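Bit of a strange request maybe. I'm writing a small parser for structure token strings and I need a real example to test against, not something I typed by hand. Could someone generate the tokens for this chain?
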Amino acid sequence: MEFKLLTPTDKYHSALVELYIHCFSSGISEQYIDSNELNAYISKIEEIGISVLALENGHVAGAILGYQLSEDTDLPDSIRENYKPEQCLYIAELMVSENFRGRGIGGKLIEKLITSEECNAYTDAFIRVWDQNVTALQLYRKNGFADKATIQQAKRKANGTDTFEMTKIYLHKKLHD
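Reply from user aminoacidic:
Good idea to test on real output. This should exercise your parser:
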């Protein structure tokens, strides 16, 4: 498995979009995904953020995407008031293709991102995860993240019209002073 830090580029844009759809349009976190919104979201991260890919024979097996926490529009006041969001990394997405899960790729992606030179400017890292995603919560906690806050987030069901609420947990890890 090769891990590659991305610089702003669209070379892997389509692969990231496909991986996102694969991870969030089926299973327990199944939800409606608008392709235009998703393309704009991935493009924004490619432009302002930091990404690390896990590649297996040139195929994107996983990815971690992050950017400055101040860009998170859902950030709870309790975090905004107790941290300097412009000095914090927000891990917006951690995705591993179903065929590659259980191999430690998620943990390696976290490590590669938070130890990258590009993250030296950040003192803290945050990640937000659905409270029902037990596997992800275990991974983040195993990698030193601790619960800090929760929010309610409305999502559209896969049919595109009905909605449901997700309780999301913000987890925090101190990177350095």
